[in-house]
Design a protein that fits this description.
alpha+beta; Nucleotidyltransferase, domain 5; six-stranded mixed beta sheet
Length: 526
Amino acid sequence: MTKDVLVGIDAGTSMMKAVAFDLEGRQVAVASLPNRYVELGDGGVEQDMAATWEDAAGVLRRLGEAVPDLKGRVAALAVTGQGDGTWLVGEAGGPAAPAWLWLDSRASGIVADLRKGEAGRRFHELTGAGLNACMQGAHLAWMARHRPDVLDRAACAMHCKDWLYVNLTGVRATDPSEGSFTFGDFRKGSYAPEILDILGIASCRRLLPPIVDGVRTHHKLTEDAARAVGLLPGTPVVLAYVDVICTGLGGGLYDPVRTVGCTVLGTTGMHMRVAHGLDQIALNPAHTGYTMFLPAPDTWAQMQSNMAATLNIDWLVRRAEEVLTLFGDAPDRREILQRLDGMVADAEPGKVLYHPFIHEAGERGPFVDPFARAQFLGLTMNAGFVDLMRGVYEGLGFAARDCYAAMGDLPEEVRLAGGAARSRALRRILAACLNRPVRTSHREEAGAAGAAMTAAMALGHYDDLAACCAEWVEPTLGEPEAPDPALAARYDALFPVYREGYRRMVPVWPDLHAARRPKAVKETPP
């Protein structure tokens, strides 16, 4: 049978997906399951590792039901997944503890202390990444102080995609993108032992898996895994790069000639640009962002990441649902969003300003502050619900501009990916906030596509990333949408106010956090 299908697994924060593509990058079928995680109430956000593997196997079996003769047609299987976080594996290969997701903020205090001194600067200088509470290093530092028994049970510290890879192949490994920004030197693509010393976790060196570049090295599907997923033993399995890199690749980040950016608006907001050589990498003075390898020689992606993107929209939509439910309606979230999109597009711009720091973990790009909180500025009696929603959209646009500004000059063009990119109003607002044309990727599953592109190169179907992108990516990009000049001028005037608004809150946020903390009530004797 002809091996004419590539399968990409994307284990995201909200969904687990398996997507089949033909060898030219056309999507054949998709299967998915909702992801499940638990918020513990103390900043902890955990996920059942065994259940995650079962879900990955489950979506592959579902994909097999959707694609005729999939088992015999799969040329390779590639896996990517949510970044940061900590997935500890025991000596026998099973979970040593529940996974800590990137949403986990328990290490915020440790990170705040480290960032005040030389440690934060040196970490950023080596890894090209700003130390924040999402990172595995911060998680391990917290465990070393508060739960050393968990580390004692662990034999390997992985990330989400690495956990799936070891279940598929039996090989413990991580990829160059995640390995280097977590504990490595971004210039060399190898581990830097000094990082562990900086974090005070030198004893965790034994937990680091080998770094494997999936473009050059892959392994085979084991017999046990083959039975679980419904594919043939020996099928090549490729460890792709972390999901943000894969989503960027599938969404149009890489251009061998032009300076382009890629903004991915999902649960979190990721803003990326390509550096062709070390001389194009600019580490910002605030020591934030990420620098990650791309599967191309001497090429990196620089990125700044907002902790929350569509979470802000979800928050306000839930408020609408609550009100409608009070009056006996059964609202449909998709319908609410569709109706609001047209109303937002017609609303007055800049009627309120919004800072989109809605997640309890605060913000991580272009500044790190675990106490940062969302806020509206400029509210009056004339501001209605639609004005608030437009403010949220504009807040995401200003946050994107803030992130690109931290990486240097704005790119010539920005490609958009992620579910929110389908919003006409949001695209128009983003183009004006950035004052750059935007192009939307019409590919629905950009992350899985980026993983499958890695597999296509690993199997030798393309000589390099440029050739792969020409066939897999360029046909999926829409026409450029130019910014509206008048709207861009309005946002040029508002952007400095947006930045000054949150900067003035920096000394207030910790006081707000302290004031909200529950205090023991001392009873007055009778």
